[in-house]
Every structure is written in structure tokens, then in C-alpha cells.
Amino acid sequence: MQRVLEQTYSAISVRDESDPLNECPASVLALLPANPDPLIALAHLKLHTFPFASVPTCWRRLYTDASIAKAVALIEQGLVHSKDYATSPSRSKRKRGGDPDQSPDDGVTEDAWVDEVVKVLDMAAIMAGAAGREEMIGALLSELQSYLVHAAPSQKKRLRVDKGWDSFPVARNMELSDVPHIQHPIQSAAAPSMQAFEMHLKTAQPLCIKDVLAHWPAMHERPWSSPAYLLEKTLGGRRLIPVEIGRSYTDVNWGQSIITFRKFMERYMMCQITDPGKLGYLAQHDLFSQIPSLRNDIAIPDYCYTESPPLKTSSLAASEKPSNRLDEPLLNAWFGPAGTVSPLHTDPYHNILCQVVGKKYIRLYSPEQTSKLYPRGVEDGDVDMSNTSEVDAEGAQNEFEAHYPLFRQAEYLETILSEGECLYIPVGWWHYVRSLSVSFSVSFWWN
């Protein structure tokens, strides 16, 4: 641990000419790394001054490096108070973002310092995208995990897992009345060869793919169906995650929150929720960059590396534009209880959605049906919502007739995606998704 702390502190103390931090004012940089708190506050303000894509890199990097400096100081304090850290003369000569000699009575309790370190580092990843410091943050969190695992018995409670968390409660699973009858099934194939899949791509049609995930550790030896395992991989549930609150992002009362993984599990996954407006959903989040050890439980499907046919404008919904070329597939996690919904929308990339835990009902509409799907436009705050339909795909029939008369004429395909299955969704196809049970899925965007 001490070696990693020394290396980390050294790395954020020295900058070369190409470091984007050099674009920040010299008066600001003078405070780094010894006085990180005001720098975090300043950078936080800058992050909210611009749209995220337009935030100058120097401010994202400042938020990240100041957060790392604060985390190093908190770890040093915590280790001293845990009597597991031998101080050195070199350490005592420098001042970091905290007082190494602060006593436990000053607020750094045995459990609180670990929680605070994880919070500080995760906020840097979520708010600033880690800004080139992904490996550094990962190394600190890995060392912290190792420390907790090998700590004295009295300290191992920091990684506690509640009894009864070996599996998700049955009560959270689907009710038969909520399972749609499939009338327009999507074509399926069992483990098609690469050549067969490339041939299918030319049809520009979706495809259910079976028997290709059995080798994933997430399905068996490192099961994502085990709440206890997921807590273990998130530092006892301390890791922070962005959560969508509500049934669907198109609902009026929909919101977002950043909470610990443990709170997410306790509030939304391990109890029965009867009010759809109070559902929680970890949706479209790059969880695997944030927690690389979970990334090791899955593998990018080989199909994502096939050569897709040239994109025709007619293959896109009216709301879509040709997307930039991706060097590697984009991975996102989708984890939530029964009842969570992704409203009818389109994506700018080909998608292979892999179902690891539970079941989902999925309905697809081709781009040719766009005129009957009532795309939204630019809404409050100049947010372009044209890739999302106004229609609740499973809404009341009288609403369709009154407000969306053409929707009932739109042709669609549908499936229930079960554990171990994948669904190929062609670029530009409209898709509606509802979880029928506790569900953990991974999407792979590619082109």
C-alpha cells in the first residue's frame, strides 16, 4: 500500500509540458497537491458551467488530480489510525491534503475513512470521467480492496455481506400476468458462425442469438445473480453508481441520484416496490471502466468484430445521424428490478444486448415505421429527444386512439430475452425494453 501511495503522490506532483493541467491558472495549480479541497470545489463549479462534452480538459483533470490527492491523504490517515502503517521520515516532511497526525476523535473513524476514500475516487470517475487517471484510481481502489480483505478479523467487517443475500428475493421476480404473449417473434439462431452472422447483417433484421454466453464467468463461477458476489466486487457495496429513479426517463417525475451500491441494493433490489415511480435503475452506465474486475467476468462477443455492410441512410430512423467510427465496442451495464423500462427509442450504433440475469420483454420497430411512432423533438433545456418516441409502447389502447392513431398500424417484432441469450439490434431500429424480473444486462455498441 505504501509503495502505491508514494508512486501516486509523485505522479500528481510532477507535470510535463503536455499535461492538460497546465492550462489552468498558475495560482490554482500552486495549491495542488497539498490543498485539494478548494480545488475540487472550483473544478466542480467549472464542470457545471459547460455542457459536459465542452468542459475544458484542464478542469476535468484538476477535479481528478485533486480528488486523488485527497484520497491519498485520507488513506494515510486511516492506515495510521488502524496501526497498519509505518510512517517514514520522507512522509513526515511533506504536507498533503490532510493532517497525518489527526486523531480518530477528529472525525476519521475506522469505517468512515474507507467510505470517504471510495466516495472521493468514484466521484472523480463519474463526474470528471477520470480524465486520463483511470489506472491510477483503479490501483488505489485495488490496494484498498486488498487491505480490507487481508485486514485483521476485527476490520473485515468493512466488507460485510448481509445474511440472506445469496440470491435475489423471489418476490422481485415477474408475475405471470406481466409476461406478454409473443405474437410477432424475432428470428433466432443457436451460436451462428461468424460467416453466418455476417450474412445476416446484410438483411438489416434483428436476431436472437442463443448458446454463446456459457463461457462467461458472470454466468457461473463468478455469478452476477448473487447479491453477495456483487457486494464483494464493489468494496462491500461502497462504490458509487448513478441511478435513475422512476419507471422510465420519459416520465414526469423521473430523476437521477448518485448513491452507494449497497444503498441501491437495499432500496431497489432486495425489497418489493409497488410504486413504479420509486423504481431505481442503473442504466446505460460504463460500470466496467469504473470497476474493471467486473469487466473480467464477461467477454465482448466476436460478432462485434464482424464487418457490417455500408450504412444506408434509409437504414436509419429519421432522428438518427451516421455515427462516428468506433475503435472498440462501447460497453454499458443495465441493472435493476422488475418493471424498469427503456422507452421506445433508437441508438446510433449496432447493438448486441446480452442477458446475464433475469428476463426482459423487448419490442422492435424498423426505421420504416418511424412515421407512425411519433418521435419527440427538442424539449426543455434544448435537449434533443428526437431519438425517443412520445408513445408508451405498452400503454392504454384508448390513449393510442386519442393521441397516436397511427401507432396501432406500426408493425413490430418482439421477444422475451432470457438468461444466456443475446439480441442483435440493427442500427436505427426502434426498441422498447421492460424488465420482467431482476435483470442484469450488458449492451455492446459497435459499428
Keywords:
29% helix; 447 residues; globular; alpha+beta; 15 strands
List the helices and strands and how they pair.
Blueprint: H1 2-13, H2 26-29, H3 36-47, H4 57-81, H5 89-92, H6 112-128, H7 134-149, E1 188-190, H8 194-201, E2 207-210, H9 227-233, E3 240-245, E4 255-260, H10 261-269, E5 280-285, H11 287-290, H12 292-295, E6 330-336, E7 341-345, E8 350-357, E9 360-365, E10 378-379, E11 383-384, H13 397-403, E12 413-417, E13 422-425, E14 430-435, E15 439-446
Parallel strand pairs: 1-2
Antiparallel strand pairs: 2-13, 3-4, 3-5, 5-6, 6-15, 7-14, 8-13, 8-15, 9-12, 9-14, 10-11
Helix pairs in contact: 1-4, 3-4, 4-6, 6-7
